């Protein structure tokens, strides 16, 4: 019987036409791989979602209802939504750690207003305007500040007032609150932001936040769920070590889940350099910045969202120039110079540029990977696009084999097999992989067809006749990063 049927028995005796359907050749081209992005961060008790439970998010209202208005997680999800188009968005909430402390700051108002005006108060990058009338006392102004802060649920802080002192407290507990910024008149006189005449504000830095939730709790709850992109707000050693272990495991042959993680860190150039030196994770992109009023977790959400959206369309296309929607650019004096950006990139931190109108754009999305297992410098996994391309190729080759050869027999090359048999030889598999490479090449993911055919190896395992061993050697396309020009003029 030359044809291998899946359902029709060779012993069938009942008369009539019997038909079975086989879809192994029904899907031409590449599989449509839906991209998924996950955000892990802290919720508020006002949110309805349970801790460490996956929830798909479709809009901002869902984020607020599930995790609490003004929570770190809700704000991150809203930022991702601003930076993606059509990506499946999931969230996993962490409760504030037991016994954790919330960061706080004080705003001390002094003086009596001698003219009408407006206080441009900032909580991170969220501006709150407080009207002031001539003759308002310090206590009156402090009360107005308290009332205004309390009227905006989107703010990540709560407020209380005692005479002329307003105390601002982070809604979420933990060290992330220490990164928050409370300031005034950020744009200065050029931006029409000045304190009303006669009024002074003394603002202390946010401090006192302590004890973050354990990121490992959320990681453990992921089990075998696949995510192409994971964004989280923590950059402490414990959290990043836990994430590295999970991402290494997801890229292993034992799990083959893949994915990439994103974070951001705000600090001085010196501290960022020290921080980056201790990282070496091919599946982690960390953006380094200084000076911006936007907190690091919002930068991470914007960066991860833009990367997810672009890489879902083409994993090999460079990410440079994509805008980071929802972040406030640092002032010019706080932006890193070209030389400083180069240092950060060499240490494994991603960088950005700023347009004249303040638009922030990705400059280069590198991973923190710098050295191989022998502790020798290694640039093979430097760029985020490389990891995304490898993931896409790995997923597609597995899907192709599963689709074309779901239940087949294996025989050596040269076997005399009847046409229609559900059987594959090493040469058959080789031909399929060559065809797949051609499709990749047409889509601009790989190049050098001759090299691929020459180096491709497909053979039956010497010790296990039921196993086919494949050496798949694609040459990935690169990205145009630098155009070096020497302008050699003549007079």
Written account of the structure:
Helix 6 packs parallel to helix 8. The radius of gyration is 28 Å and the shape is elongated. It starts with 35 loop residues before the first strand and ends in a 15-residue tail after the last strand. Strands 2-3-1-11-12-13 form a six-stranded mixed sheet, with helices on both faces. The chain has a four-stranded antiparallel sheet with strand order 7-8-4-10, with helices on one face. A three-stranded antiparallel sheet has the order 6-5-9, covered by helices on one side. It is built from eleven helices and 21 strands. Helix content is 28%, strand content 20%. The protein is of the alpha/beta class. The chain folds into three domains: 100 residues, Sandwich (Immunoglobulin-like); 174 residues, no CATH class; 83 residues, no CATH class.
Mean pLDDT: 94
Strand content: 15-25%
Structural class: alpha/beta
- Total DSSP E strands: 21
Helix content: 25-40%
Segments where pLDDT lies below 50 for 5+ residues?
A: none
Write the SSE topology.
Layout: E1 36-42, E2 54-57, H1 60-67, H2 72-83, E3 88-94, E4 104-110, E5 117-123, E6 126-132, H3 138-150, E7 157-162, E8 165-170, E9 182-184, E10 200-203, H4 215-222, E11 229-231, H5 237-250, E12 260-266, H6 269-277, E13 284-289, H7 296-313, H8 338-347, E14 351-354, E15 360-364, H9 384-404, E16 409-410, E17 423-424, H10 426-442, E18 446-447, H11 449-455, E19 457-460, E20 468-471, E21 475-476
Parallel strand pairs: 1-3, 1-11, 11-12, 12-13, 16-17
Antiparallel strand pairs: 2-3, 4-8, 4-10, 5-6, 5-9, 7-8, 14-15, 18-21, 19-20
